[in-house]
Design brief:
- The chain is 38% helix and 20% strand.
- It is elongated.
- By secondary structure, the protein is α/β, with parallel strands linked by helices.
């Protein structure tokens, strides 16, 4: 809620608080008033009915959508990098990748039309506010997102554990896009072929693989390190 008011206050429509929530979150109450949102005090029972969480914290907001068009998301990439989520279905993974993208300085996150809804409450919670920090595009096909990234001057890299190209051997100092596939089956062959290269995160131990959120975090951190170099 605080991140929403701090970074996307214009999107806030209404804020609902219980009496205890109003006392505990006076800063949110003040921020909502400054943003011009409607502020309503209601009972614990009403908040519980409205909330998705088992134990709501006594404050909820109704906000307008925050996603942006594809062209706008790619307009300010410059020498940076973006993330494309292709058919990612798990809300925890999607939210964690958004959080990692924010932490490591990605310019945007592009979420394919076959992926989980970015407005799923579990996605929002697992992003821990990062969904309000980084431009997000939704509703495009993975193929469309790849073509748009290439048109914007980005080298397109597919992340796949079966590749012979290892992450340390890839030049990440150039503008680029990471394409991350489905948790169970990865990227479809035709999408891998559409990318400029397919890259694997080397695993030294005996773990079978990394899950999507872990692999994405490693790739994005490596991109951030390369940019600093």
């Amino acid at each position: 809620m605080r991140e929403l008011l701090a970074y996307a206050a214009a999107h806030v429509v209404d804020v609902y608080l219980t009496p205890d929530g109003a006392r505990a979150h006076a800063d949110i109450l003040a921020g909502a008033s400054v943003a011009g949102a409607g502020v309503y005090e209601c009972t614990d029972e009403i908040v519980a009915l409205m909330a998705d969480a088992q134990h709501p914290q006594g404050v909820l907001a109704v906000a307008r959508a925050i996603d942006v068009p594809l062209e706008q998301a790619l307009a300010d990439v410059g020498a940076g990098f973006v993330v494309v989520l292709s058919n990612v279905r798990d809300p925890g993974n999607a939210g964690t990748v958004i959080r990692a993208a924010d932490a490591f300085g990605a310019a945007a996150v592009l979420i394919s039309d076959a992926s989980v809804d970015v407005y799923n409450p579990k996605v929002m919670r697992s992003s821990v506010g990062s969904a309000f920090h980084v431009p997000i595009t939704i509703g495009v096909s993975t193929s469309e997102a790849i073509d748009a990234c290439r048109a914007a001057g980005l080298r397109v890299l597919a992340a796949d554990g079966g590749s012979s190209t290892a992450l340390p051997d890839v030049d990440l100092t150039v503008p680029h896009a990471w394409v991350m596939g489905n948790e169970a089956w990865g990227l479809a062959p035709e999408l891998r072929e559409q990318c400029d290269d397919v890259v694997a995160v080397p695993i030294a131990g005996h773990a079978e693989s990394l899950n999507l959120a872990m692999a994405a975090s490693v790739c994005l951190h490596t991109s951030a390190q390369a940019r600093r170099l």
